[in-house]
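Aim 2 progress update. The chain analyzed this quarter is reproduced below.
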Amino acid sequence: MARRVDHLGLRSAMAEWLTPALIGAMSFLAALAIAGALAAASLAGQWTQNTGAALTVQVPEPAGKSQEGKTTRVQAALNLLQNEPDVAGAKALSGAELDALLRPWLGEDAAKLALPIPAVITASWTGDGPPDGLRGALDAIAPGTLVETGAGWAARVAALTGSLQASAVSVLFIVALVASAVIPMLTE
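Predicted structure tokens:
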């Protein structure tokens, strides 16, 4: 096999100073991609677990009477949630906690705006599947009650981390391509 002529001296230049720089840069990029993929997977597991189980219940007109007429709407909803086997840690947020949540959007004191603020109950959903039966039971005692789970957010987090991991694999692929292009030049 005939040896190619190197008029510019690239082979000798690469062998002397560029080879260690290329190997270092490729190693750094590969390590960064692997660390990013592992961190994304770990973070996704934590976020998905915490977010997917979150249950938020909004009770409009919380001080009004429930359908059964014995308690307020928020108290009836809270009682139902606390007695539900698939719900854990049901707790109604206090006025101060609601003010703290709404402060970035409504200012210092949401009560001064005379807006109808619903009561908010937080809990964890431990049941399998969506809480459709819970929605119906809550709507029967306090019509208009909204029930939301974190399943939508958990799906978005999973999609985001999947794309981050795909990006990390792409970076590893590019590093491998660069290495396969550089190695023949160094070994001739």
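The chain is about 60% helix and 10% strand. Residues 10-52 form the longest helix (43 residues). These observations will guide the mutagenesis experiments scheduled for the next reporting period.
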